[in-house]
Description:
0% strand
Amino acid sequence: MGILATIVVGFIVGLIARAIMPGDQKLGLIMTTLLGIAGSLLASYGGAAVGLYAPGTPAGWIASVVGAILVLWIYGMVSKKG
C-alpha cells in the first residue's frame, strides 16, 4: 500500500506543480508522477539537511509542491533547446 500511496501523492503533487509553474510543460502521466515523487524526495532530504524535518520523516504537501516546482524548473533549464 505504501508504493501505491507514493504514486498517487506524487501524481497529485506533480499536477499542482505543473499548474503553478508558468509555461507549457509537455509531460505525460508517468513524467508528471515522477516529477511529484522527485519533488517530495527533494523536499524530504533537503528539509532534513536544514533541520526542518527529522531524518526519515516525509515532507508535507506544501514542501513537496515547492520541491516539485524546483525539479520542474531544473528540468526546463536542462531540456531547453537552442
